[in-house]
Amino acid sequence: MSKVRGASRWFCGLAHISTDWALWHGLGQHGRVAEADEIARSSLALVAQDGLREYFDPFDGSGYGSRDLAWSAALTIDLVERLGGPEHVRLDSEPPRHA
User: Taking Cα atoms as reference points, which of 49, 51, 42 lies closest to residue 19?
Assistant: First the structure.
């Protein structure tokens, strides 16, 4: 990532819960369950780490933009429910770090 363009800017490849949800959904529909589950769990870990933010830094998981974003909340609830409900989802792990 360029040092000129910091992670707090839109155009630097940030992670959005809405994009992750769409990828998760599409992968699941095409039988790529392991990859879909990894995206779902890493997305939930981002939310656990820094809340229902608008977008996240893909390197350290820091949340940026709006706080308590409704889209992030709705899609997080959907992910939790589709993964078996809150009793089946662990949110105490750190999001994966991308190099």
Answer: 42
Domain count, the chain: 1
What gap in Å lies between CA 6 and CA 63, rounded to an integer?
A: 13
DSSP 33: H
Both tokens assigned to 35 = 């990859």
Asked whether residue 52 is assigned to any structural domain, the reply reads: yes
Residues 6+ apart with CB under 8 A from 65: 53, 54, 55
pLDDT at 83: 85
* Prediction pTM value: 0.76
d(CA 14, CA 17): 10
Determine the Cα–Cα distance for residues 87 and 58; give it in Å rounded to an integer. Answer: 27
Domain annotation covers residue 6? no
Which residues does 68 contact at the CB level (< 8 Å), separation at least 6?
A: 51, 52
Residue 23 belongs to what domain range?
A: 17-88
Top-confidence residue, 85 or 13? 85
